[in-house]
Amino acid sequence: MKLRMLLSSLLLSGSFCLLAQDFPYEVSVITRPYEPLTDATEILPGEVWDDPDYFIPIGFPFEAFGTVFDTLYNPGFVGVGFMDNIEFTGPALLPYGSDLIDRGALTATSQSQIFYKLDGTAPDRILKVEYRNAGFFDELSGLGVNDSYVNFQFWLYEGSNNMEVLFGDREIVSDVHFTDGTFVGFFDAYNFLDFVNGWHLSGTPDAPTVYFVDGSDPNWQFGPGVDPDPDPNTVFRFSLEPFVDTEEAALAAGTQVFPNPFGEVLSLQFDLPAAAENLELRVFDLLGQAVYSERLGEIQTGRRDLLLTGLPAGAYTVQLRDGQEVWSTMVVKQ
């Protein structure tokens, strides 16, 4: 009960300050097709969960706000939040601050899952945590329905100590958020009773701002969240330093996608500084569904023409993947 009451009060009380004071991360928004985790470990398999207690081994040292994490603890937060311990003051990372619950709570049969996966090889591994088909407590308890749901992931990057929050398919039809919109926030020093500094995203999902909250102010309050809710395939990236992957940068610099907008044929011209060994091409619609795929294999230079006559007009994401390296760009079909 203490955790539920405190985190609810963190999200509902006092006055706020529109300042990104000392926030150590650069915030950027990118578009990348959302892919559910595969070959991942499920937490609490088969259980109908509500504010679950669990821990996840990160698999590598991860530093945030001056603290080195080796484990993510979720001590029953009313929202989805992680700490490095549950015994003393430390950072708290909240990739999704709304009160989530298993959509099967009305029937006592689980419909929602929590997964994690350590992806890649050292020293470039990524810990990925996924909430799949999660429902909202306020809707289930207040209205007796489970119409709203969300899919999202939280990634931690080895070495760079960068973080990402990725949004998948969702349907939110009720007033389910503590704030006016999706809450993504951080505390640098939090101990279940109070905190020192807090930050959260606010504004529109394509250009969010950072609100700073001074925990020493007795009248503190968080501002509005991200509104409207982020569309599928939206990624919020939190970088301690400019996030540049050399191969991803090479794919971006050495690939031209044209024309844009396009009609029936979309062309890709390659002039890469080094050959991609196993390049895969996929095209996704706005729901994250793959509508075209082709294995290009080893390639450094050349051109590929894609005949996309069967696709309806609209926006699409072109994704190139070579092993763990991924580059995406948005195109429009007329």
Question: Which terms would index this structure?
Answer:
334 residues, Immunoglobulin-like, 5-stranded antiparallel sheet, 20 strands, 8% helix, 49% strand, disordered N terminus
Largest sheet report: 8 strands, antiparallel
Shape: globular
Percent in helix: under 10%
Estimated radius of gyration = 21 Å
Spans where pLDDT lies below 50 across 5 or more residues: 1-20
Distance between the termini: 54 Å
Q: From the helix content, strand content and strand pairing, which structural class follows?
A: mainly beta
* Number of E-type strands: 20
Task: Supply the number of helical segments.
Answer: 3
Report strand %. over 45%
| Helix and strand run | HEEEEEEEEEHEEEEEEHEEEEE
Number of domains: 2
Mean pLDDT: 83
Description:
- The protein has 334 residues and is mostly beta strands.
- It folds into two domains: 2-239, no CATH class; 246-333, Immunoglobulin-like (Sandwich).
- It is built from three helices and 20 strands.
- The strands form four sheets. Strands 1, 2, 7, 8, 9, 10, 11 and 15 form an eight-stranded antiparallel β-sheet that branches. Strands 5-6-12-13-14 form a five-stranded antiparallel β-sheet, with no helix packed on it. Strands 16, 17, 18, 19 and 20 form a five-stranded antiparallel β-sheet that branches.
- It is globular, with a radius of gyration of 21 Å.
- 34% of the residues are buried.
- Mean pLDDT is 83; it is low at 1-20.
In short:
The protein has helices at 2-12, 137-143, 246-253, and strands at residues 26-31, 41-43, 53-64, 67-75, 80-83, 90-96, 100-102, 113-119, 126-136, 149-157, 163-171, 185-190, 197-202, 209-214, 234-239, 255-258, 265-284, 290-307, 314-322, 325-333. With 334 residues, it is mainly β. The relative contact order is 0.16.
